[in-house]
Fold this sequence. Notes:
With 373 residues, this protein is an alpha+beta fold. The chain has 11 helices and 15 strands. It folds into 3 domains: 6-73, Winged helix-like DNA-binding domain superfamily/Winged helix DNA-binding domain (Arc Repressor Mutant, subunit A); 84-211, no CATH class; 221-370, Alpha-Beta Plaits, CATH 3.30.70.2200.
Amino acid sequence: MTHRSKVVEKRWLVVSEARKLTEERGSFTVKELAKSAGVPYTTASDWVTRLVGEGILRVVERGAGRRPARFAYVSKHIPPISPCEKIIALVDERNGVVEVCHKCLSIGAMSFCKREYEKAGGIVVSTRVEGSWLRIRAKLGSSDVAVGEPPLPSIGLSEAKALEDVVELGVVGFKGAGYSMLKTMPHADGVLHVESSVREGVVYGRIYTKKLERVVIAVDDTDSDLEGATWELALSMANKLSEIDWVEFLSHKVVSLYPELENKTGGNFASLVEFGVPSQKVEELIDRVVDFLADNTKSSETAVAVLRGLSIHPRLREFGFLAKQREVSLDQTQSVAEYVGIEVREVVGRRGVIGAVAALAFADSVQEALEEF
Length: 373
C-alpha cells in the first residue's frame, strides 16, 4: 500500500483550493481559503505564509485595518521540453530508401517511439537504437497509417519525400504522440519547418528537415607495436570532423576481424564511423579524413574504405563475415570493392585496405561488428 505523508496531503489540499478560488474569484482571503479547504484558520494562515515565500501564492492586496489581505495562486507555465534534440534524414535515392534519425534525450522516449513506429508499419522497414539516436529506415513514398487507442499505435510515419535539398516527412500522431509532434519537434535541431492540422483527435504533421547522404568510412592499420589504437584514432577523427557545421557524426563502431593473422599489432580490430553530409560535400569529407589520418597514424599501412548510401550489398556482407573467420587477400578485397562500388584510399599504405573494406559490412549492426567466430 502506498502511503502519502499528512504534510504532503495538506499541502496538496491547500494549493488545490487556492488554485480553485483564484480561478473562481480572482483572489481570496485566509478565512475564505480555510473555509474552502475545511482546515482551521491558523493552519490556512501558516500555509499561506509558507506558499507566498515559495512563490506559489502572491499577495494581491495587503491587509489594512479590518480589511484582510488577499492572495492569489501563481500559475506557472512549464515550457515543453523536446526529447528530440535533433532530427535529420539520410536519403539513398538510388535504392528508394530514407533513414530518419532522431537524436533523443530519453532512452524511454526512444524505446517508446521505436515500438510505435514499428507497430504502425506503412513505409517503415526497420528501426534500431544506436547510442542516443533512434534510426527509422523507411521507403521513399507514402502509405496509409492508422493510429488511435491501443492496440493501435500512437504514432506512425506515413510519407517520406526527397526534394532538392530538403526531406518532407508525413507523421501521424494520437494524443500524447500528437502533442509531442505539435509542441516539441519544432524545437529540435535540424528541423526546418513543421506544419500540422488536427482532425478528430489525430494530428497530421509535415516535418521538413535537411537532406543528407550517409557516408560510412572504415579505417584499419593505424597503430604500431608500441603505440596507437585504431578505434581511438577513428573516434578522434570523427569528433574533430563533427565540429564542421555541415557534418553530422552518427556512430562509431569497432569491428572484430580474424584474430590469428601474423601481421597484426593487437587483436585485429578495424573501426568505422558514420556521417551524414550534403551530397556535394562527400569528397571534401573524405579528403579531410585522409588528411587527418595521414597526420596522426602510427603505421605505414593505413588505409580507408568508403561506403555511400544506406544499402549494404550481399557480397560485401559475405566478405565481411569471411574476414572474421580466416585470412583474406588484398586481391580478394579489391575484387569485392570494385564489384560493390566501394571507394578505397591508401592513406600511407595498402595493408589496411583489407580490414577497412571488411568493416563496412557491419555498418548497420554493432552486435555483428563485434561478433567472433
